[in-house]
Design goal:
The complex is a heterodimer of chains A (639) and B (319).
Chain A lengths: L4 H19 L4 H21 L1 H6 L4 E4 L14 E4 L1 H24 L6 H20 L3 H19 L8 H30 L4 H7 L6 H18 L6 H9 L2 H26 L6 H23 L4 H21 L3 H32 L15 H14 L6 H20 L2 H29 L15 H19 L1 H17 L1 H9 L3 H5 L19 H21 L6 E2 L31 H6 L1 H10 L4 H22 L2
Antiparallel strand pairs in A: 1-2
Helix pairs in contact in A: 1-2, 1-5, 2-4, 4-5, 4-11, 4-14, 4-18, 4-19, 5-6, 5-11, 6-7, 6-11, 7-9, 7-10, 7-25, 8-20, 9-11, 9-25, 10-11, 10-13, 11-13, 11-14, 12-13, 12-17, 13-14, 13-17, 14-15, 14-16, 14-18, 14-19, 15-17, 15-18, 16-17, 16-18
Chain B lengths: L1 H10 L4 H22 L9 H10 L3 E2 L6 H20 L15 H21 L3 H33 L10 H11 L9 H15 L10 H4 L9 H26 L8 H26 L5 H24 L3
Helix pairs in contact in B: 2-10, 2-11, 3-10, 4-5, 4-10, 5-6, 6-7, 6-8, 6-12, 8-10, 8-11, 8-12, 10-11
Classes of the chains: A mainly alpha (639), B mainly alpha (319).
Chain lengths: 639, 319
């Protein structure tokens, strides 16, 4: 029974996208019901798979049309779900569900909504198919559907300036990625005569030739473009900013995770090259550059959504860095951070959407003081901001803490001082992340309330529910790291580090051993931590001290408490101190902050500002450039 | 019985009461010594206690422009997380909660009071606070780089004796010093120790590094709209932070010894803390005027980071 679940989940989403356009183009309620049902079913199915796959350690394989392998050659399309696939599938289905829920109200002011939902469900189905499939060509098809659905969603609000331009950039760079992926698939097929990933993985162990090495570079470029790592990141910044917020959440929450998934699958399982220190150095370098460049670009932004978009890039940099270490601890940190990124970044995008919905703008220089008008959105935003900046006890802290340890452990193991510098950069990036979120909180939620926003209302309940769900998940994954590790992360890490089972389930027992005779002994999957983080002990301490402070405050309390003015009385005592300046001239806007930092690094900021020219030719050139780097790298180090 | 001991650790020693007392004492001594350096008589050492009690009794005013909840909770959160941090810092060889003392966690917990100041200042809605939080954030970015370099140095040095090659556990660091002598007795660690001494005033925010509160330029910045009990809590946090940072310095660089008696150990640790306070905070305060914002950043990222990096490289070379 359960082997049908993955294909049912994918089918539901694709089927619903056709049903929406057939039955939902007139009627809002029918459309909403189809969308919600279609986005709930995959989530439920994936949750049902947790027990057999994550806890019992099964791997589910499913041959479409029952085309099973003949004489040891996979001829049909196979779906294969191991713990890694399921881990990403859970992230994807959760994002789909919450984004659909949010969009019901958020998108209600737009027209031709059936088109939005067709594209959205297509995108969801493609992403889910991509992480669950076991067939390389099928994976390429999913990438194609995903790219074009994402491009169309980016351009959905094409009456504004921005979306069309962003979609065009995405289209150009995304197409480069897809074509390179297709070429890579073709080359592998021409050499190995199979498209099944498990079989390719086994057969590649017979040795690489120059064609497969070239295919490696092609596929790695394709997935890098999907993950939006430097230097193909500017497209992501434009697309996330221009897309409707519920789609931005889907793009940042799950579409760039497909790139991360692809890189893990490619490096650890299909090519099994992660043991080479040259590959580790390459991936860690790219990840570190990505996280640093992303956060410094974010510090410079004046738009809420664009700032979040650059943070998305930066956080993916953390994930890539951790994955590139090639250790069990690094993978743990990387996967944990990938999950956390989906939670907090999705939530922050939803907050930006709520601000856009209520106030009509996301310009940091115009907004201010919304905490009084939108207290719940402000609270959720602060949870998200603390999570992404890695403040304990929220979830970002756990994963970043794992990543610091993993990088420093790797530095100690290999004696490579560069990895120690990566730890330092990761910490500094984390502080800069905090800095730019302080900027957002000051210029959107705190500070003075401009007169034009005095009538702003709190976001509607149906938009706040998904935000609260994510906020609660952020806290839960922060205070229960042991459980998250036990039931979600560890099975996925084990699946990544033991590809033999992945191959055998698909191709029959003993198949992998025929090819993997000379393969390295099973890598160490145990995770030894160098420090301690027990959130429950810290929380207990915190609560006890908090109680003590409260008791002390209550004992010492006199009859006179905290005073603030009632609405009618205007008393100078309660006015803000302006030192004689007129208050309309003393506003501190978003771009006025962090002068000292910007002044000292002005040459660097000027430089990165200039290279992000906004010209699509440049960005296409960068995509080709990273491809060239990968080719040179692959031919020097892998052959 | 176990629970009673835990409560004793958390609330009395080395927790709430002791930390508060030690912090206010350090603040008092700092003021007294500063005054003597400037040829003034200065306030009595108990003055911070009087100030605190006086502020607690004053009226608390919440400005109209402020977001009330954040404005009132921020000081409490900041103070509480500071106390929680203090509980796990070893006094001599004594460590109340051995299993949870992790250096990276402590550093991140130490950012919570700074974030509390920022959120509190931002929620007050004053433009002076706006400038104040911007400067506070620049200060955090400035000192965090050398701070992490120093910590990685210490972790690497202490971890060399262990199997993994590194440790982030504070108790391991103390154990290392117990067997191998204090960290400052290894010459390769001296630049890192000096760098940490330079970080302390930045982290605590005393002159000449108090750009965020600069009362002569931006009217106390983040504190501009605070009054009464919340202000008292912020002042208390400031004093406690002095103790936490100096005690952290002590346990990272001059610990591992014990006299056998906790009381005697505590007195010696307090004496070292006073000495460190005078060297790292009072002396620069008495001798230098407030730095410009951009100078602060450059100072920490160039001079202090370079010192810390020298130590890190020396330790990596096995010295």
């Amino acid at each position: 029974m359960i082997q049908h679940f993955p294909v049912l989940a994918i089918m539901t989403l694709f089927l619903a996208s056709f049903l929406v356009v057939l039955f939902g183009s007139r009627n809002k309620i029918v459309r909403g019901i189809i969308t919600m049902v279609a986005s709930t079913i995959p989530l439920v199915l994936m949750i049902c798979l947790i027990k057999p796959i994550m806890i019992e350690g099964q791997v589910i394989s499913y041959w479409l049309g029952n085309w099973e392998p003949v004489n040891g050659w996979a001829i049909g399309i196979g779906i294969e779900v191991d713990a890694l696939s399921l881990f990403f599938a859970l992230i994807v289905t959760l994002t789909v569900f919450l984004s659909a829920f949010y969009s019901l109200k958020y998108m209600s002011r737009d027209d031709t909504l059936e088109k939005y939902y067709v594209l959205f469900l297509m995108l969801s189905g493609a992403v889910l198919g991509l992480v669950l499939t076991g067939d390389l060509f099928n994976l390429f098809i999913m990438i194609e559907i995903l790219t074009f659905a994402a491009v169309a969603l980016t351009a959905f609000r094409n009456n504004e300036d921005g979306p069309l331009e962003a979609a065009f950039k995405y289209l150009v760079v995304g197409s480069i990625g897809s074509s390179l992926t297709l070429t890579g698939v073709i080359l592998l097929y021409s050499q190995l005569h199979t498209l099944n990933m498990a079989q390719i993985s086994a057969m590649l162990q017979n040795g690489q030739n120059s064609t497969t090495v070239f295919a490696f570079a092609l596929l790695l470029t394709g997935f890098s473009i999907k993950a939006f790592i430097v230097p193909v990141h500017p497209v992501a910044a434009d697309a996330y900013t221009a897309a409707p917020t519920s789609a931005s959440m889907a793009l940042a929450g799950m579409v760039n995770k497909t790139g991360v998934y692809g890189i893990i699958r490619l490096l650890y399982i299909i090519f099994m090259t992660m043991g080479l220190s040259s590959v580790q150095n390459l991936i860690v370098t790219i990840g570190t550059v990505t996280m640093f460049l992303g956060v410094t670009m974010a510090l410079n932004q004046h738009d809420f959504k664009r700032l979040l978009a650059f943070h998305s890039i930066s956080q993916i940099g953390y994930v890539i860095t951790a994955i590139g270490l090639g250790t069990a601890l690094g993978l743990t940190g990387g996967l944990y951070h990938a999950m956390n990124h989906t939670l907090f970044k999705g939530m922050l995008f939803l907050c930006a959407g709520a601000v856009l919905y209520s106030a009509g703008t996301t310009n940091l220089d115009r907004l201010g003081g919304l905490a009084k008008k939108m207290p719940q959105t402000c609270a959720i935003f602060l949870i998200g901001a603390f999570s992404i900046s890695g403040i304990p006890p929220f979830n970002g802290f756990v994963s970043k803490w794992l990543i610091y340890q993993a990088t420093y452990e790797r530095a100690s193991q290999t004696g490579n001082f560069g990895f120690a510098l990566v730890t330092v950069i990761a910490v500094v990036v984390s502080v800069m992340t905090l800095a730019s979120f302080i900027k957002v909180s000051q210029s959107v939620f705190f500070g003075e309330l401009p007169a034009e926003f005095s009538n702003v209302k709190e976001a509607p309940v149906s938009m706040r529910i998904p935000m609260w769900i994510m906020a609660i998940l952020c806290i839960l994954t922060g205070v229960l790291p042991a459980q998250v590790y036990q039931y979600l992360i560890r099975p996925a890490v084990n699946a990544v580090l033991s590809p033999v089972k992945y191959i055998n389930v698909m191709m029959g027992n003993g198949y992998a051993e025929k090819f993997l005779s000379k393969v390295q002994a099973a890598p160490d999957k145990s995770v030894a931590l160098a420090g301690y983080w027990q959130p429950e002990s810290w929380l207990l301490l915190f609560v006890i001290v908090l109680a003590a402070v409260t008791v002390a405050a209550l004992l010492g309390k006199k009859d006179r408490g905290v005073s603030s003015s009632s609405a009618e009385v205007t008393d100078g005592k309660y006015a803000t101190f302006y030192s004689g300046e007129k208050n309309e001239f003393s506003r501190v806007g978003g771009s006025d902050l962090f002068w000292g930092l910007k002044y000292n690094l002005r040459h660097y900021f000027g430089f990165i500002g200039n290279i992000h020219s906004g010209v699509v030719n440049d960005y296409a050139l960068w995509a080709v450039m990273i491809f060239a780097v990968y080719i040179v790298f692959a031919f020097i180090f892998l052959l | 019985m176990q629970i009673l001991w835990f409560l004793f650790y958390i609330l009395i020693f080395p927790g709430f009461l002791f930390t508060t007392f030690a912090g206010l004492l350090l603040a008092g001594i700092d003021r007294k010594v500063l005054a003597r350096m400037q040829r003034r008589i200065g306030p009595p050492i108990t003055q911070p206690f009087y100030d605190f009690v006086k502020l607690m009794g004053k009226e608390t005013i919440v400005p109209d422009a402020a977001s009330r909840t954040a404005f009132l909770t921020a000081p409490v959160i900041g103070f509480v997380s500071l106390i929680v941090t203090a509980v796990v810092i070893p006094i001599g060889n004594f460590l109340a909660f051995r299993g949870i003392a992790d250096v990276i966690v402590i550093i991140y917990l130490l950012t919570i009071p700074a974030v509390a100041i920022i959120i509190g200042g931002a929620s007050s809605g004053s433009p002076f606070s706006g400038i104040g939080i911007s400067r506070e954030m620049v200060a955090i970015v400035s000192y965090e780089l050398p701070l992490i370099l120093v910590l990685l140095t210490v972790c690497k040095k202490a971890g060399m004796m262990l199997s993994g090659g590194m440790t982030f556990s504070l108790s391991d660091i103390v154990v290392y010093q117990f067997y191998n002598g204090t960290m400052v007795s290894h010459w390769a660690m001296i630049p890192a120790a000096i760098a940490f001494l330079m970080i302390i005033p930045g982290e605590v925010g005393t002159q000449p590094f108090d750009i965020a509160e600069a009362e002569t330029e931006i009217c106390e910045g983040t504190m501009a709209e605070y009054s009464g009990a919340p202000l008292a809590l912020f002042e208390l946090s400031h004093a406690v932070k002095m103790f936490v940072m100096t005690a952290l310095f002590t346990s990272l660089f001059i610990s591992g010894w014990t006299t056998g008696s906790i009381v005697l150990d505590t007195i010696i640790v307090l004496a070292i803390c006073i000495l460190v306070t005078i060297i790292s905070m009072t002396l620069p305060h008495a001798s230098a005027a407030r730095l410009k914002v951009e100078w602060l950043f450059r100072y920490y990222w160039k001079i202090v980071s370079a010192l810390a990096l020298v130590s890190l490289i020396l330790v990596w070379c096995g010295l």
